[in-house]
Amino acid sequence: MTRILLLLAILCLLPGCTVLHKSQSTAVYDFGIQTPALSQPSVQSAQLRKNSLLVADTTAPVWLDSKAIHYRLLYHNPTQSYTYASNRWIATPAALITQQLRNRIAAGTQEQVIKDNSIATADHVLHTELEEFSQVFDTATDSRIVAGLRASLIERSTRKLLAQKYFNITAKAPSADAAGAVSALSAATNQLLDELVNWLAATLPHD
What's the angle, vertex CA 153, arms to CA 67 and CA 187, rounded to 5? Predict the structure, then answer.
């Protein structure tokens, strides 16, 4: 009997044991409440615009196409990517960005936003690719976030690439943990989308 109790005690020192340790709950994050649009088009100007814009779903590379919150330890192994075990996004970053982007464009420009090509025909298509979205540790206690998004505007009838731009932000995280990553990445997303909407409004052909 003593041997059995001793064996159980040893096993429970290992990660994942549920006999003596309660399982840690997972913290789930999104980007928070969206900031107000930069500008609200007037009813008159919106009626004058006849163009429509298909905002395609934001895509991401395979390693980033998940709900995981990624980080790198540059001081240890800069080529290895890690994920927080007990923290995650409520949806993939690409999906969260897609919804915010459509809302921002609809509220901040004069374009008629279409999210599904089967619903209506669009004059232009906006493609966005999330290329980087992670936290980077320069030291064990000093971290920053890196976010990168590529936007491509295409004329739908001719499939001509009208314009393309890469938006990227590096900003210090308020804390060297998952909460700090989420806070900084959320703020960076707001800034990226503000810049993208301004670029889009200036780039789209005007009637």
Answer: 40
The model's pTM is 0.81
Distance from C-alpha of 12 to C-alpha of 8, rounded to nearest angstrom: 6
Those residues with Cβ within 8 angstroms of residue 92's Cβ, 6 or more apart along the chain or in another chain:
60, 64, 65, 66, 67
**How do residues 141-168 score in pLDDT, each as one tens digit?**
999 999 999 999 999 989 999 999 999 9
Pure H helices in the chain: 2-11, 43-48, 93-108, 178-203
Place of tokens 């279409």: 114
Spatial separation of the C-alpha atoms in residues 11 and 109, rounded to whole Å? 60
pLDDT tens digit sequence for 61-86: 999 999 999 999 999 999 999 999 99
Q: Where are the extended beta strands (E) located within 38-76?
A: 52-55, 68-73
Do the beta carbons of residue 123 and residue 51 sit within 8 Å?
A: yes
Tell me how far CA of residue 149 lies from CA of 118, 143, 204, in angstroms.
26, 20, 19
Distance CA 28, CA 48 (A): 43
Residue 141 per-residue DSSP state:
S
